[in-house]
Amino acid sequence: MDGLQAPRVLAAADFDAARTVADEWFGHPVGLTLHRLFFDQLGPHGVWIARDDGAPAGFLLGLVSLAEPDLAYVHLHAVDPALRGQGIGALLYREFGRRAMGRGCTRMRALAAPGRPGSIAFHRALGFEGPLVAGHLGPGEDRIVFERALPLP
Q1: Which domains are present in the chain?
Q2: pTM of the predicted model, to two decimals?
Q3: How far, in Å, CA of 132 to CA of 116, rounded?
Q4: Do residues 13 and 52 touch, judged by C-beta distance below 8 A?
Q5: Helix/strand/coil for 141
Q6: What does the mean pLDDT of the chain come to?
Q7: pLDDT under 50 in the chain at which residues?
Q8: CA atoms of 45 and 37, how far apart (whole Å)
Q9: DSSP string over 100-138
């Protein structure tokens, strides 16, 4: 993609840049959802995409499940609102899925809040399906638990 660097492994040094843009990109405080642990300890699972000038364009925090070793789990992904609709989110997911397949994963899971139509449409466009699970993240915290087989198209 023009103006963007190639996707790379998330690094601990990316935390400060992600923290700086995350609340604005999501339109609300993300709090501990954007936990430093993903950068310091789980970074090799995540994906980072920067603009040519080094500014963040998008990132994905994810992991290969220890409980279900065939499962790649997306904890969070974010794309600069000015760049949405250009395929960056799908690129993040494809790169994460490609790496996860190299570690033996055959499926990918991601959550979406029922009140986030953009996130729901994004996941469905990538072929994810899943039920709405009441209280998935606690009382009143319903989520759509999306899943699909790897590889991504």
Answers
A1: 8-149 (3.40.630.30)
A2: 0.95
A3: 13
A4: no
A5: coil
A6: 96
A7: none
A8: 12
A9: HHHTT--EEEEEE-TT-HHHHHHHHHTT-B--EETTTTS
